[in-house]
Design brief:
single chain, alpha+beta, nine-stranded mixed β-sheet, 13 helices, 23 strands, elongated
Length: 425
């Protein structure tokens, strides 16, 4: 993509309405613009990041045996009345009627709809286990939306639902999703603490929240010191953490804690629940067991805030110059910075690099604007491009270009023909 043809309305100053780092940087980097309270337009740069995060989530969900589908945003109220949640959910639910006076709601979650799908299409234990997921927009009418996409009213969420024939199998599915979440967050460059948590309006009797530790986190989390050793590891699993103390604020009881505990602020980015038969029993999502007995399916549900993750990653990875994206989700992996757009040799070198990187699927952003070098450097640091390739007449005279790593700040002079090897290493 040529920057001269790209919509990137960056801001030099911090917007006054933004209270936390991620909100400020997303506005300054031209990723989002507010449409109304808690609702945002995702501009091209932000949309690319959102899609990249969604792709990481999809890949890991598919590896774990998940099957992607798509459920509507508008749901019939009768399903929620059947489950008993329609009146219990509260004012966060946006309710409406269509022209035929049928009651509808903008789905804040999808337990009822997915249970309806399964009860109409799954009849035998031979069709289980089953894990169905989608990535879809949700709406919750927050009384006080704030902090940009961290607590908006409309948000993009991955929600998955598992169905099993018995409780033991359902626990296996729960652990599978727990470990899958750890893999997803690791690929996104995040260290998370899964804490035991209250099940809230979703229900069930087993629940973990996944928190990114950050000073701007809204939640208090408590965890034992042994977690510090896990943070140093490349990966860890449910088996590693099952016996470790980690609790959300509402579950922590200081008097009953028998190990040294640290407290921190956390940003919740994922939540997993074992639901049991809370929905399947009341909605009659029954299957025939191996013994020939009709039993309600054992369920679990698993959510990841895809749009919230954008803000959480920025909170965890930024500096005074701007965003530092993990390469796995960066909107552009490389930037080509032309220091002299009126110089034919610079233009030729940049064009050659642009074609080479495009063919190599490096998704380059070519800054071909007639702007100062300082402005171009500031833009790339702000939007967090992992690799910056600087092309200028002095370097070309020596047969080299400059390659800068955004995360480390390291700069090196290399020959243009080894750029691909350097950024792929």
């Amino acid at each position: 993509m040529r920057l001269s043809q790209f919509l990137l309305p960056v801001l030099k100053e911090d917007p006054s309405e933004a209270q936390i780092v991620s909100h400020r940087l997303m506005l300054r980097a031209g990723m989002i613009r507010q449409l109304s309270a808690g609702n945002y337009n995702w501009l091209p740069l932000g949309w690319k990041v959102l899609k990249n995060i969604g792709q990481v989530v999809r890949e890991e969900m598919d590896k774990a045996g998940g099957l992607e589908l798509l459920m509507p945003t508008l749901q019939p109220a009768e399903l929620w009345k059947e489950s008993g949640r329609y009146d219990a959910y509260g004012k966060e639910m946006l309710r409406m009627t269509d022209r035929h006076d049928r009651a509808l709601l903008y789905g804040p979650t999808n337990e009822e709809v997915i249970t309806d799908i399964v009860r109409n299409n799954v009849k035998s234990y031979k069709q289980l286990p089953l894990n169905l997921y989608h990535i879809q927009w949700k709406f919750r009418d927050e009384v006080r939306p704030r902090f940009g996409v961290m607590r908006g009213r409309e948000f993009l969420m991955k929600d998955a639902y598992s169905f099993d024939v018995d409780a033991a199998s359902a626990r296996t599915s729960y652990v599978n999703m727990f470990n899958t979440y750890l893999k997803i967050f690791a690929r996104l460059g995040l260290k998370t603490v899964p804490v035991r948590a209250d099940t809230g309006p979703v229900g069930g009797d087993l629940s973990h929240e996944f928190h990114v530790l950050a000073e701007t986190g809204e939640s208090a989390v408590y965890y034992e010191e042994k977690w510090e050793t896990l943070f140093a590891k490349e990966s860890y699993t449910f088996a590693d953490v099952e016996q470790l103390y980690a609790m959300a604020d509402e579950m922590h009881v200081a008097d009953k804690c028998k190990v040294p505990v640290k407290s921190a602020r956390g940003i919740e980015v994922g939540h997993v629940f074992y639901l049991g038969t809370k929905y399947s029993e009341i909605m009659k999502a029954n299957v025939m067991s191996k013994e020939g007995k009709e039993v309600p399916a054992e369920m679990g549900c698993y959510g990841i805030g895809v749009s919230r993750l954008v803000g959480a990653i920025i909170e965890a990875s930024h500096d005074e110059k701007g965003i530092i994206w993990p390469e796995s989700i960066a909107p552009f992996k490389t930037a080509i910075i032309n220091l002299r757009v009126n110089d034919s040799k610079c233009n030729e070198a940049c064009e050659a690099l642009y074609q080479q990187l495009s063919i190599g699927k490096q998704d380059p952003l070519y800054d071909d604007r007639d702007a100062s070098a300082g402005e171009k450097f500031a833009t790339q640091d702000l939007i967090g491009t992992p690799w910056q390739i600087v092309v200028g007449p002095k370097g070309l005279e020596k047969g080299v270009i400059e390659l800068k790593n955004r995360k480390t700040g390291e700069k090196q002079e290399i020959a243009a023909d080894v750029v691909m090897q350097s950024i792929s290493a």
